[in-house]
Amino acid sequence: MSFNDSGTEKPSQPDVGPATTATAAASPQEPLHQFAVYDGTSGGIGKIAVVNAILGLFTLGIYRFWGKTNMRRYLWSRVTLLGDRMEYTGTPMELFLGFVVAAVVMAGLSIFLIGLQILVGGDEVLNGVLTAAYLLVIYFLIFFAVYRARRYRLLRTQWRGIRFSQTGRARDYAFRAIGLLLLSGLTLGLTVPYMNTRLQAYRTNNTWFGNRQLSFDGRAAELFWKWLLALVIAAPTLGISLLWYSVTEFRYFASRTRFGNLSFASTLKTSRVFVIYLLFFLAFFFLYFVLIGGVIGVVIGAGETGVFSQHPDNPLAHMAPTTVLGMVVVALVIVSLMNVLQFVLFLHPLIRAVSETLLVKGTVNLDEIQQSDAQKKGRGEGLADVLDVGAI
Predict the structure, then answer these.
(1) Strands 33-34 and 358-361: what pairing?
(2) Is residue 119 classed exposed, middle or buried when 0-12, 13-18 and 19+ CB atoms within 10 A define those classes?
(3) 358-361 and 207-209: which strand pairing?
(4) Fewest Cβ atoms closer than 10 Å to its Cβ: which of 38, 234, 287, 370?
(5) Nearest to 281 by CA among 363, 356, 341, 330
(6) Mean pLDDT, each 10-residue run in order, the chain (392 residues)
(7) Which three-class secondary structure state does DSSP give residue 230?
């Protein structure tokens, strides 16, 4: 059995019959070859990021839905799988309308919780219970939003004219994630591989390309000792061991993923990912200190004009409007530059690294794959945008 987009069961599509040369199962001796090719450029992605940052500032953030769509269209179109380019078909208005609806819902929820806190007054026990309940609700909504956003992106992703899709329920995924997160906390993080593997299994086993389903058969036990080692040496390695584990986990998950007769592997190295992180954080901290330097310059200037000495309690209220505006402009410009660097120095090289090291073995007759019958929802990943857990 399989599921439709609302989570109800539907009859499974019949499997393609036994093999011809094109669909024969891969033999153990069959060589691996590159699965994906990414030919995006830092200049191409940087141009879009700069335009998005500038227009985002002038529109007070409203343009970000159009900017995100443009970025996705560029990135998707620069990825080639087995000789055919991918395509993103989402629209900015879907993202915008989804955000508006989610923002109204979250505002109502916040008002309700604030009202409850006012009603309980100064009761510390009830306030503590409400705070714990609020945190659980937020984490639940985060996992719920992440799963829904993933479904939206898959439904708006096409390859060879065939849509991807995602079954399963966001609610079920969120409950699983909350339970596994609590278990991880109770075990002081020792069950993190179990949590990640279970969630990866739910995501992958509910992922479809057309009428064909992906599968995942990973086992947390095969990752446990590596995770334990990464935890033990995290402090002396300044956290680099945790990055090593993340890359190791990614390679393992890739190796346990199947699409029909296709099996995957990754040769991604920790050193390559470490260099990407290092260059990005060096640029980030450089801009951060530039920002601090700009603020210090404004403060020194204000001190020279006597604002701080004349109004020590609240000097900002007595600064010249142009000075305050200058501080705001400097902050917004630096934040926008950081966002641009995130695409150019982090996302772009990371996509290239993953695509160049993702390998595949086996064959499949792509012409026999039929279009997905999953319905395309009208609204985008609004809740993920509101909670700031959306992804490109």
Answers:
(1) antiparallel
(2) exposed
(3) unpaired
(4) 370
(5) 341
(6) 41 37 47 93 95 90 94 97 94 93 90 81 77 88 95 95 95 97 95 98 97 96 97 96 98 97 96 96 81 59 50 52 63 80 95 96 90 76 86 80
(7) helix
